[in-house]
Specification:
Elements: E1 19-23, H1 34-46, E2 51-57, E3 65-68, E4 71-77, E5 83-84, E6 87-88, H2 90-99, E7 110-114, H3 119-131, E8 135-139, H4 145-152, H5 156-166, E9 172-175, H6 178-188, E10 194-196, H7 203-208, E11 216-221, H8 230-242, E12 249-252, H9 258-267, E13 274-277, H10 283-291, E14 293-298, E15 302-303, H11 307-315, E16 319-322, E17 326-327, H12 330-335, E18 339-342, H13 346-357, H14 379-391, H15 406-413
Parallel strand pairs: 1-2, 1-7, 2-4, 7-8, 8-9, 9-10, 11-12, 11-14, 12-13, 14-16, 15-17, 16-18
Antiparallel strand pairs: 3-4, 5-6
Length: 414
């Protein structure tokens, strides 16, 4: 298939920005997670350079189309719960996947998509082929066959096969970390068209944030789902208090496991020591909470990058994570002078936390990053790399910059 975006145009004095259609079933602020925060940061910035449209489920009340921060949002699917009993909903994945065929009626120059939950990529491949447009997909993490089977039992092998086939649908892949790119190439080949564009953070906003008055010993941030292992963190807090260390823990986030985790905290007798915060929607407030903590902990057994970990590093807070094989956040923490990576066992985590908290936090920067490499992860640097993919696709895609007339633009967008 011809991947060039050049099209025959009548020369005129006008030049338009490329139209980018991003397809993702979950968007901020209706859903909170690493990919949602990534797009929340990228979309308004991208809208300054491209005509940005997002196609998703009907999360909001009112008309199916609305515009905010320069981005136009379109509902192409009814709203269905993404999780059923803590697992991704197959019904939701199939419904959203079939709804993506509606993209055949939409105008765009580049079709961008999030890889989750895989099914939609097959429909979008059809759309991109028929409309002769490039399909770019952001891949956050790669699951192994063994992980699929541990997640879904014996049927996991079928979903692993679906994921492996889905990797071959895009014309170009944006990997959220170097390790994700490496895993992708192991499956689809060394010559696959892949660009690594990791998650970023807002360095300037973090620098301005001040620690909140009420501090905590430990803070954890993320969606409350099983693989984040917040339940293990509660066991750690209970064990520390049982050994005479009255630690205070703050958990920021929401998700399908929230009620179970709150019930477990009550059962362990640590309800008064663990604060669940589901109301933090402002990033500045989040950074203030992180800066007011002695230790940021991420015990997740699976992370495609670790955006919250990067934010904690940028805040200058001490960070602890584990060496779980699918926890790619450990590669960030290994680079951090105030970071520690330990084995994922409960006893190992307890030992590491005791050692860290036994030493008073002497952070001379008073809440800003100490390692120069962190500045490379500023969102603006990531924007330039995404734009480069849209316009060249790593020497694969080429956006048409030929001037068009007003009448042509009106006709195409009608």
């Amino acid at each position: 298939m011809e991947l060039s975006l050049k099209r025959h145009r009548t020369p005129s004095a006008l030049e338009r920005n490329p139209v980018v259609a991003l397809v993702c079933d979950a968007i901020y602020p209706y859903s909170h997670g690493g990919r949602e925060f990534r797009y929340q940061a990228l979309l308004p910035r991208l809208a300054e350079r491209v005509d940005m449209h997002v196609y998703t489920m009907h999360w909001w009340e009112g008309p199916k189309v609305f515009t905010g921060d320069g981005v136009t949002y379109h509902a192409i699917s009814t709203l269905l719960p993404m999780y059923i009993k803590g697992r991704r909903s197959i019904r939701q994945a199939l419904t959203f996947g079939f709804a993506c065929l509606r993209m055949l009626a939409c105008h765009f120059d580049v079709l961008d998509a999030d890889h989750i939950p895989y099914v939609q990529l097959f429909a979008l491949r059809v759309v991109a082929t028929l409309k002769r447009k490039p399909l770019v997909v952001t891949w956050h993490e790669v699951w192994s066959r063994s992980y699929w089977c541990s997640y879904l039992g014996w049927v996991g092998w079928a979903f692993w096969a679906i994921e492996s086939l889905a990797m071959r649908m895009p014309d170009h892949i944006i990997a959220a970390s170097p390790q994700t790119e490496e895993r992708l190439r192991e499956i689809i080949g060394k010559r696959a068209s892949i660009t690594t564009i990791p998650n970023g953070t807002d360095i300037a906003t973090i620098a301005r944030a001040r620690p909140c008055p009420e501090g905590s010993d430990i803070i954890a941030v993320g969606r409350l789902i099983e693989h984040k292992r917040i339940d293990v963190l509660l066991d750690v807090v209970a064990a520390l208090r049982a050994h005479g260390a009255p630690v205070r823990c703050r958990v920021v986030g929401d998700g399908p496991e929230r009620e179970n985790l709150q019930e477990k905290a009550r059962a362990l007798g640590i309800e008064s020591s663990v604060e669940f915060r589901t109301d933090v929607n402002d990033q500045t407030e989040l950074y203030s909470l992180i800066k007011a903590s002695s230790l940021f902990i991420s015990l997740s057994e699976r992370e495609g990058f670790g955006m919250a970990v990067l934010e904690a590093i940028a805040c200058g807070t001490r960070v602890l994570t584990t060496s779980a094989p699918d926890n790619l956040a450990q590669h960030l923490v290994e680079r951090y002078t105030r970071g520690i990576v330990c084995n994922p066992g409960v006893e190992e985590v307890i030992s590491a936390v005791v050692q860290i908290l036994a030493v008073p936090d002497q952070n001379p920067t008073e809440g800003s990053f100490t390692d120069p490499w962190v500045a490379d992860y500023d969102w603006q640097a990531m924007i330039e790399r995404v734009i480069n993919v849209y316009t060249t696709g790593g020497d694969v895609l080429e956006v048409d910059r030929t001037p068009v007339t007003v009448l042509e633009l009106q006709g195409e967008n009608s």
